[in-house]
Design a protein that fits this description.
The complex is a heterodimer of chains A (about 260) and B (about 600). Chain A folds into 3 domains: about 35 residues; about 120 residues, Sandwich (Immunoglobulin-like), CATH 2.60.40; about 100 residues, Immunoglobulins (Immunoglobulin-like, Sandwich), CATH 2.60.40.10. Helices cover about 15% and strands about 50% of the residues of chain A. Chain A is built from 3 helices and 18 strands. In chain A, the strands form 4 sheets. In chain A, strands 1, 2, 3, 5 and 8 form a 5-stranded mixed beta sheet that branches. Chain A has a 5-stranded mixed beta sheet with strand order 4-10-9-6-7, with no helix packed on it. In chain A, strands 12-18-17-14-15 form a 5-stranded mixed beta sheet. Chain B is an all-alpha fold and about 600 residues long. Chain B folds into 2 domains: about 550 residues, Cytochrome c oxidase-like, subunit I domain (Cytochrome C Oxidase, Chain A, Up-down Bundle), CATH 1.20.210.10; about 40 residues. The chains are: A mainly beta (about 260), B mainly alpha (about 600).
Chain lengths: ~260, ~600
């Protein structure tokens, strides 16, 4: 076959370009460790996400030192959880699945970008060095409201990040001869111990308790005060743990049963 | 190279074929008009410059824009220009013109069916829609008429291919020792690629999506139908491109005033496309879960080698143009460029299309990079890329070629060459603005296929310029393109109303500097190349497909895939049973009615 000299040179240069492109990508995969979304996750039944430990409660979990996992559900036309909150200087693995049609999970301005296909779980690991706020968009057409499908990813400064949850249960009404009780539970989602102080205020009475909540566990305590000390009437209470606060009002009444009887009539 | 010896125009030599080709081209231009209209509506809506439709209707517009332009416009043009190429280069008419009209009719019916399903989405009074975009990814579901329309259309293209093969076989009987003329060679290799590629879409629609839309099956495996779509969805881009390549090889050198640089390399290029167009589709699924990284890597490697035929084409086309320029008295390293016929709309359009294709090729290399793809996948970068390839390399070449073909097909001179020149330049300018802004917007993460890329919770940050500036460029480009289409259509209509002309050039294509005699006979062994192409497809696709079915089930996540044969059989049995029951019932009714009639 007759091939002109210039054409042979061009052919050679084209082959060099092709091989160089493949080498570049291979370096990205092997050298920089950019792995592709692939088939390493098990399939999932998109109609039974509520039976799945990871996706029945879409959330972020602390799984190791500076390591987090985010379980995200995409559905028409929203993401759960929203916003997704993680600390700076962390490594986050996102697990994303869809409960209806094909979506995407694309964090704007980053290379976190994956298709989200019902029946499959996409997993990607990313490192966040700096705090920042990112938009999350669906860039795969998913129906008439596609353009409204967005979410947020907040990377908060490391020292401002915790996974503490405070929950307080208190009575609405207490008889004067009884005790006012507040059941306080402090959940620590982080793996490290949480050293903190539970501060409570009921009417004029104050309480303070230094506690250590172990990693990935919940500390429960009960605060009581004699209703008689508070006296008849409405009393505001509040419980504070770090930046979290829960509050309510308790009413101390003369005689609980009579009062209840009145309500019935 | 063989050439029409009669020396007349195409309509003089092949009046019956000219009618079919003309009809195909007019169908193509009607689709261009509609697609272009939807294009400008989208441009103004997305950029929030002028919104007069509801945003949910944007997706009906987008589906119509995509399907009318990349299926109807391109493929109707292809069948027209391929019929011209085969009849001209073999110098014989089609074997049976009724068969030719049959495939044209099927393609038209298919188009009307799919178009009806899409356009019905504009009104609530008809309970039918197909707002599934060009890719129709399940579980989004279109009306069954949409899927059936696509099937009928594709069957039409299959028969068109059969028509051209028939011509070639008949010609071979009479010319047993001759090499296949280059234009026919290009048509046949392109069609062989098409036959292989359409297996994907045929299985996807006939086995899954059509029965699913009719309620015969309950669910589908979204990854499977998506993968089958891209089995066809990548080679189809070469189906759009190869008619343009053919014109660059067989027409552009002649218009430049010279000869094609190398016939052998042109054959090699088309063989490479036959071999490599299909086993690459998974590169559209780099970011899909459920497909192993290894399969993606194989698809990427094949894709990168697919650059080779395009790079070879760049060389041959530029070398042929230079040869033409030097024949016209051009000199110097680059000075010859000035000697080219830039005022000829046919030349200017094709040359500018080629230039933009080079830019599109580079953004394509980025897309093809497996891990670089994370940055651009499904952003506006991607439409920026393919508006340079199918939207310019193909579309602008088709329009430029039309300025040469129309007089051949009608026997009438082109209505206005100056308007034609303005038209091709406007397309070039409009696309420069539009694709530039799309590529840049994509790098900011602005998504494609979105009615309102303006979000509540965050803003896109432009490193250079601003999002408003990008929107303005996009709208300006879109407007210039819309004007360009209007001018093009005006020229088509104007030409149709012209009187017959006697001084039209003869229907000829380019001669070659290095002819087929410089290449080994094996290049023309179509059976060999087809066999290798099939093997490559099996290698690239069998394991990914088996893995996808194994993971997600043949008919979706709910149904376990094994044993496949028994399940398929039971489904078949169930369907047969249903049909039989229905048939018996109908027969019974019919007999009863007849009997009643007779007794009365």
């Amino acid at each position: 076959m007759k091939i002109h000299t210039y054409e042979k040179l061009w052919l050679g240069a084209a082959m060099v370009l092709i091989v160089a492109l493949i080498a570049t990508i291979t370096y990205g995969a092997v050298g920089l460790g950019i792995s592709m979304v692939d088939d390493e996750e098990e399939t999932i039944d998109p109609d039974a996400l509520d039976e799945d430990d990871r996706f029945n409660d879409p959330r972020v979990e602390h799984v190791g030192e500076n390591e987090y996992e985010a379980y995200v559900v995409a559905r028409t036309f929203m993401y759960q959880p929203d916003p997704i909150e993680v600390p700076a200087n962390s490594e986050v693995t996102f697990y994303v699945t869809s409960t209806d049609v094909i979506h995407s999970f694309s964090v704007v301005g980053t290379n976190i970008n994956t298709m989200v296909i019902p029946g499959e779980v996409s997993s990607m690991t990313a490192e966040f060095d700096e705090p920042g706020e990112y938009g999350v968009v669906c860039n795969e057409y998913c129906g008439s409201g596609h353009h409204t499908m967005e979410g947020q990813l907040h990377v908060v400064p490391e020292d401002e990040f915790d996974m503490t949850e405070l929950e307080v249960e208190g009575d609405d009404e207490v008889a004067e001869d009884d005790e006012v009780t507040l059941n306080v539970s402090v959940e620590n989602g982080m793996l490290d111990d949480l050293e903190t102080t539970i501060e409570a205020e009921i009417g004029e009475e104050t309480f303070e308790e230094d506690v250590t909540v172990e990693g990935d566990s919940t500390y429960e305590t009960t605060i009581t005060v004699d209703a008689a000390d508070l006296g008849e009437g409405d009393h505001d209470w509040s419980v504070t743990v770090d930046d979290y606060e829960d509050s309510g009002t308790v009413t101390v009444v003369d005689d609980l049963e009579d009062d209840g009887g009145d309500d019935d009539e | 190279m063989t050439m029409s010896e009669s020396g007349g125009t195409y309509i003089d030599n092949f009046p019956a074929e000219a009618r079919v080709v003309r009809s195909a081209l007019y169908s193509s231009f009607l689709a261009l008009a509609l697609g272009g209209l939807f294009g400008i509506i989208q441009t103004l809506h997305r950029t929030d410059i002028y919104r007069f439709i509801e945003s949910d209707m944007y997706y009906t517009v987008l589906t119509a824009h995509g399907v009318f332009l990349v299926v109807t416009f391109t493929i109707f043009f292809l069948v027209g220009v391929f019929t011209w190429a085969v009849t001209t280069s073999l110098d014989r008419g089609v074997e049976d013109i009724r068969f030719t009209w049959l495939w044209y009719g099927l393609m038209t019916i298919g188009t009307v069916m799919a178009a009806a399903a899409i356009l019905a989405g504009f009104t609530d009074s008809i309970d039918m829609s197909a707002d599934v975009l060009f890719t129709f990814y399940a579980p989004l579901q279109a009306h069954w008429l949409f899927y059936l329309g696509l099937v009928v259309f594709v069957v039409g293209t299959w028969l068109a291919g059969a028509d051209w093969f028939r011509s070639w076989w008949a010609w071979k009987q009479e010319n047993p020792d001759e090499r296949i003329p280059l234009p026919t060679f290009m048509v046949l290799t392109t069609m062989l690629m098409w036959y292989i590629a359409t297996i994907g879409i045929a299985v996807s629609i006939l086995v899954f999506l059509l029965p699913w839309s009719l309620g015969i099956i309950d669910s589908v495996n979204p990854t499977l139908t998506r993968t089958l779509f891209w089995f066809w969805g990548h080679p189809v881009v070469y189906f759009w491109l190869l008619p343009a390549y053919m014109m660059w090889y067989v027409m552009l050198p002649k218009i430049s005033g010279g000869k094609l640089f190398s016939d052998p390399l042109a054959r090699v290029v088309f063989i490479l496309f036959l071999l490599l167009s299909t086993p690459v589709g998974i590169h559209h699924q780099y970011l899909d879960p459920g497909i192993a990284e290894g399969f993606k890597f194989i698809a990427m490697t094949n894709t990168m080698f697919l650059l080779l035929p395009s790079l070879l084409t760049a060389f041959t086309v530029v070398a042929s143009m230079e040869h033409g320029a030097r024949q016209r008295g051009g000199t110097g390293y680059f000075g010859w460029l000035k000697a080219l016929p830039w005022r000829d709309p046919v030349f200017a359009g094709m040359a500018l299309a080629g230039l933009m294709f080079a830019a599109g090729g580079f953004s394509g290399m980025i897309n093809a990079g497996m891990n670089i793809n994370y940055l651009v996948h499904n952003t506006l970068w991607v439409p920026g890329h393919f508006h340079l390839t199918v939207g310019t390399a193909s579309a602008l070449t088709f329009m430029a070629a039309t300025y040469w073909l129309l007089p051949q097909l009608t026997g009438k001179a082109l209505w206005n060459r100056s308007v034609a020149l303005v038209q091709v330049v406007l397309w070039f300018l409009g696309m420069t603005f539009m694709s530039n802004s799309m590529h840049r917007a994509g790098l900011l993460g602005i998504p494609r296929r979105t009615a309102e890329p303006q979000y509540q919770g965050f803003e896109f940050e432009a490193g250079v310029g601003s999002v408003a500036e990008l929107d303005f460029q996009l709208a300006l480009g879109g407007a210039l393109l819309a004007i360009s289409i209007v001018l093009f259509l005006a020229n088509v209509v104007g030409t149709a109303f012209n009187g017959r002309s006697d001084d039209l050039p003869a229907n000829e294509f380019a001669e070659t500097l290095s002819g087929p005699e410089d290449s080994p006979q094996v290049l023309d062994n179509l059976k060999l190349w087809t066999a290798i192409a099939v093997v490559l497809v099996i290698l690239a696709y069998s394991f990914p497909l088996m893995s996808i079915v194994d993971r997600g089930g043949l008919y979706g996540p709910d149904i376990s895939p094994f044993p496949v044969s028994i399940e398929t059989l039971s489904l078949l049995a169930f369907t047969l049973e249903q049909y039989t029951t229905a048939a018996i019932a109908t027969t019974g009714e019919f007999v009863q009615t007849t009997l009643t009639g007779v007794i009365r």
